[in-house]
Hints:
By secondary structure, this protein is of the alpha/beta class. It has 12 helices and 20 strands. The chain has 3 domains: 7-104 and 185-433, Alpha-Beta Barrel (TIM Barrel), CATH 3.20.20; 106-167, Alpha-Beta Complex (Oligo-1,6-glucosidase, domain 2), CATH 3.90.400; 443-510, Golgi alpha-mannosidase II (Immunoglobulin-like, Sandwich), CATH 2.60.40.1180.
Amino acid sequence: xxxxxxxxxxxxxxxxxxxxxxxxxxxxxxxxxxxxxxxxxxxxxxxxxxxxxxxxxxxxxxxxxxxxxxxxxxxxxxxxxxxxxxxxxxxxxxxxxxxxxxxxxxxxxxxxxxxxxxxxxxxxxxxxxxxxxxxxxxxxxxxxxxxxxxxxxxxxxxxxxxxxxxxxxxxxxxxxxxxxxxxxxxxxxxxxxxxxxxxxxxxxxxxxxxxxxxxxxxxxxxxxxxxxxxxxxxxxxxxxxxxxxxxxxxxxxxxxxxxxxxxxxxxxxxxxxxxxxxxxxxxxxxxxxxxxxxxxxxxxxxxxxxxxxxxxxxxxxxxxxxxxxxxxxxxxxxxxxxxxxxxxxxxxxxxxxxxxxxxxxxxxxxxxxxxxxxxxxxxxxxxxxxxxxxxxxxxxxxxxxxxxxxxxxxxxxxxxxxxxxxxxxxxxxxxxxxxxxxxxxxxxxxxxxxxxxxxxxxxxxxxxxxxxxxxxxxxxxxxxxxxxxxxxxxxxxxxxxxxxxxxxxxxxxxx
Length: 511
Ligand code: GLC
Ligand code: CA
């Protein structure tokens, strides 16, 4: 299967925008499209070339918009479809690209398809979701909704109990109510998914980040059915939208790429050991020097070897589902962490506010199905004015409270300060952009995996060795020669074949 890849993906650095928390222009305490447009220059100035925006469709917001009520309509609180189209245009006017968040696995219970599918009489939507054929039978291995429909059956849910699972069929149906991928219901669901994609691609979006992409076909342990489904989508894209970019939330890049995605996210849950680096008691990137990156690297290399030359693995700085980096790392530690994130293969993703070290807001009540995730979703801190410049509403009206610390970091101050985290992140992005060996497709070879972590990035034009030393202790690295082109943290000196790297530092050496 051929996978066409848009040129701009070759060297993209993404910025994730959580629309409700980015910038509010009509003082209702919730971010909106106009707010995002007003901050595009900020994102561009940071050096990011592309945006992933979390779900922005009509929704009762029981799971922050991952519970879609109408796939064809922008959530009115953000603006109209026309406003969203304008956002696409403004992004393109700045030579950037934007991915929407596609939620193919489930809808909100308020979606009209679900309401129809709950009816006792057969209709167009009867088979749109995964239903058993008796209220007393639960779908094995899945949670379900039962007792609220006239229809005699239980409906499988994919995530929260307000998110009924759309029906793409079972890989190997075992029970009478389990449909196969080739049955009419599942086929109609897939066609509708393509219609949704077609609708937004025609309007000007550049592709999709796909939510829970690996979960669509049920009883599909090896992912074979789901891979086949995405290959079908890829054929449609090749034909109609060959430039559309596709990123999956799957966590198994070999499967995702086989399904026709360009890139797969490295997930913070499951077997990745991602949190060993950033978010645990002694993360690898803390100065204590007690952490380890070994298990992370073992998994990473396994996946990298399976996918080398075929697509990308994306390592995010964070996202709307995990704690802020700043909950476990201080500013100097975060700088070294970004030196790593921005010099790895694949496309880096920076979660809004991570570039200024926004903190996890402790002890706040769950908002929009966020639960413990709510603290990482607080409104962006732009400056030191009212509500940190996020909104001119009264502070109580903000839909999530902000970091109460009077010294909370803000973008404006950090832009003006050359030693701030944001300035460091900006320089590291620029370094990546001007050195091909640091970019998405250049090869990686790991040379040392403890303190320090040493890896060599190579492309035709260039070789750069990156030494990452998060621990407090200075280290000497032997058998390295070349020119130091950039350092983060303490000074680094390269003499002869030896490089001396201070604690909590990173150094880039061109060979
Ligand atoms: C993904 C999203 C998460 C959401 C879930 C269900 O993991 O990132 O925020 O709650 O899917 O759609
Ligand atoms: Ca608003």
